[in-house]
Amino acid sequence: MNPPFLWSMKYRPTHFDEISGRDDIVELLKNLATSNDIPHLLFTGSKGYGKMEVARLFAQYVLGDGFETNCKIVYAADPLSQIERDETHKESYISTRRIGSTAGQRFTWPAFIFSRIRPFVEIKPLSFHPLKILIIEDFHLLDNQQQGFRRLMERYSSYCRMILLTHQISSIIDPIISRCNIVFFKKIEFTVFEKKILEVAQKEHLTFRGDIPKTLYISTDANLEKAISHLQTASLIAPDITPDTICRIAKSDINENINLVLQNALSLKTNRLKNPITLIKKSGRSFAEIIEIMSGDVYNLPIVDAIKAEILDMLSQIDFHAVDASSDELLLDNLVYNLIELGKTIT
User: Fold this and answer.
1) Does 32 share its domain with 172?
2) What are the angstrom distances between the C-alpha of 156 and each of 104, 122, 150?
3) How far apart are CA 84 and CA 158, in angstroms?
4) Higher model confidence: residue 138 or residue 109?
5) Average pLDDT of the chain?
6) Residue 134: helix, strand or coil by DSSP?
7) Which helix (H) or strand (E) holds 184?
8) 3-state class of 206 per DSSP?
9) Is residue 133 domain-resident?
10) Eight-state DSSP code of residue 324
11) Claim to verify: residue 91 and residue 44 sit in the same structural domain
12) Going by fewer Cβ within 10 Å, which terminus of the chain is more open, N or C?
């Protein structure tokens, strides 16, 4: 079999013991795995710090040969299909032919839980394994469905363990937090990061001109997977990789985050704003640059020209009054607030 084209996949760990920079977490989870009562787990930390990777490999470590049949990964950010919504609506009505006090009544099922989660947790483990594991990425996006999820945690805890991943632990309700062991993911140490980058460079026969590991560490905020992807992109641009090449690649990432802020703020998806805003602030880009990039993005929005003009007018007004401001971070926060307020008038 040919190796994967993407280096981020090629150098991704395949076993629990291969995880880089998480020795304390690996040891903790191994101790839990050897106990007779593995708890529900809540992984929290910035995006790109390896929460999904650790969760997947831990489930593989615990389930062994039963991993494929007894583990499910769910992404809360993935929208439901119309078929899933229709099925949830259909099942919310109890036929009048049914016996009991609920006959003829209509219930409001949490759609995501009903269609994506309940079918998995209701079936007991296969292959004679005592446990099954459900992993949910971006759990905080379930919002008001979290209470319904809490009831599932209680009802099926005898054989199903949940691993919840989030970078916004403040958005998780207390009843769920109290039922989980919390594992905090911090930025990995530079020495670990540098060792992995140099290992990839040696295997791929890359030539560095300058301190590339340090540049990658800063520009990706210690995100190893993104750093390896940047290395691959840089290798396609020129045989010798320089800090300038890495910075140009990282710049395109910031443009994407600025676009995410624009779209999520206008569509009132405020729970998806924190991560791109944080990355923009860490990038060191000036507020004038942010306004310039965002203004260009407005033209590509799928909205009528009159609303585009309204957004551009608002951006120009903020840019004009930004001359006397002393903090780019406060200006960005004010920009996001104004985008949300504008979004309320156009949705």
Assistant:
1) yes
2) 28, 7, 10
3) 27
4) 138
5) 84
6) strand
7) strand 180-185
8) coil
9) yes
10) G
11) yes
12) N
Q: What is the span of the domain harbouring residue 242?
A: 192-251
- Which residues are CB-contacts of 219 (< 8 A; sequence separation ≥ 6)? 230, 246, 247, 250
The values of phi and psi at residue 241, to 5°, are -95, 125
Q: What share of the chain is helix, strand, coil (3-state, %, to 5)?
A: 60, 10, 30
| Lookup result for tokens 């300038």 | 244
**CB contact at 8 A, 304 and 276:** no
Neighbours of 222 (CB within 10 A): 21
Both structure tokens of 120? 């998995």
Instruction: Transcribe 231-259 into DSSP letters.
Output: HHHHHHH-SEE-HHHHHHHHHHHHHHHHH
SS3 40: strand
Q: Residue written as tokens 């010798």? A: 240
Give CA–CA dist 182/164, Å, rounded. 9
CA-CA distance, 146 to 142, in Å (whole number)?
6
Radius of gyration of the chain (CA): 23
Give the pLDDT score at 52. Answer: 94
In a domain, 165, yes or no: yes
The Cα 160–Cα 125 span in angstroms is 8
pLDDT of 323: 64
pTM: 0.72
